[in-house]
Specification:
Helix content is about 70%, strand content about 0%. By secondary structure, it is an all-alpha fold.
Length: about 110
């Protein structure tokens, strides 16, 4: 289930319409910029969580971590993406987010 209605990055051809490696690389580069922008927003939520959570112990929530990874895996399956790779990426993303949140939690309470 590909989401062909998703907005394409500016100046990028859809993957199906690419005819040259220049077009492929432009699409990949534009998509990477979008991913980084989304990560910026995601880490903003981590800063908000650090601000809201009352104790440092509340930062790590293994049940929530498992739920986030499971949701990403389910979305990957629905989109016919490599499930194992998505699971590995999300494991790293969530662990990195937890580390970032710990750092921010400590910083705003010093």
């Amino acid at each position: 289930m590909n989401d062909s209605s998703a907005k394409l990055p500016e100046a990028a051809s859809s993957p199906e319409n690419c005819e040259t490696m220049v077009e492929v690389r432009a699409g990949v580069d534009a998509t990477d910029r979008e991913i980084v922008a989304l990560l910026e927003r995601r880490f903003g939520y981590m800063r908000a969580a650090a601000r809201i959570k009352p104790t440092r112990e509340a930062v790590r929530d293994e049940e929530r971590k498992a739920s986030v990874i499971a949701a990403a895996v389910a979305e990957a399956e629905a989109r016919s993406l490599p499930v194992e790779l998505i699971a590995e990426l999300w494991e790293q993303l969530v662990e990195g987010s937890i580390a970032y949140e710990f750092g921010h939690w400590d910083k705003i309470r010093d």
